[in-house]
Amino acid sequence: MSLATITQAIATFAVTNIDDLVILAVFFGQTHGHRGAATRVIAGQYLGFAAILVVSLCAALLGAALLPATALPYFGLLPILLGLRAAWAAWQSRGAGPSEAGDEPAWSAPGIWQVAGVTFANGGDNVGVYVPMFAVATAGTVALYVTVFLVGVGVWCAAGRYFASHPVVANTFSRWGHLILPVVLISIGTTILIEGGVFPR
Asked: What average pLDDT does the segment 21-48 reach?
């Protein structure tokens, strides 16, 4: 396996997942005070990304996409729905005020399926890039791509957790995380719909 192939795999992962850093930082920012929540975020990220890889691999092996290209943008509806749910939870707890030291945050920590769903829904561009890459690559090269991508997910989780634990970022999420999350999720979903051409221009 050449260094050029590994470099290409790293660059492809970074380009197709740069927006996931923001999402992961938001999710990790909500894990403070919740035992095991960070592990659930990591597990959800891996689960969602694994689903992206499975869809991409199956589509490449079959020689055609499992879903028509026009259907991929509608994955954006999932983060919008999750964002609306988070906004409703924030609205219900609006009178609670900021959490005191040692108290549980006013919002729920993200769960595995929530993180996985957002990751998968945000993976339309990943599928669009990975399918043609996998379709023309040898089995060994595909295995290398997948390995690099899975290592990349771990690096992304570490980076997202670092950003969320940075004092300035952590304080921001501690105070405003319940408001930031729905805004980010709805923005991501709307961007997916717009860039996918769901709305006529």
From this structure: 82
Sign of the alpha-carbon torsion through 135, 141, 143, 145:
negative
- The Cα–Cα gap between 86 and 80 comes to 10
Q: Please give the Cα distance from 122 to 158 (Å, whole number).
A: 19
Tokens 């221009």 sit on residue: 201
Query: First and final CA of the chain: distance in angstroms?
Result: 44
The 8-class DSSP code of residue 99 comes to P
Closest CA to 60 of 130, 161, 151, 143: 130
Q: What is the pLDDT at residue 51?
A: 94
The residue whose two tokens read 């975020």 is 41
Both structure tokens of 21: 């850093």
Helices assigned H by DSSP within 63-166: 77-92, 112-121, 124-136, 139-165
pLDDT at 103: 43
179: nearest Cα among 100, 102, 106 = 106
CA nearest to 16, candidates 118, 153, 125: 125
CB 122 within 8 A of CB 192: yes
pLDDT in tens, 65-98: 456 666 766 767 877 887 788 788 778 876 655 4
70-100 burial code (b ≥16 CB/10 A, e <16):
eebbbbbebbbebbeebbeebeeeeeeeebe
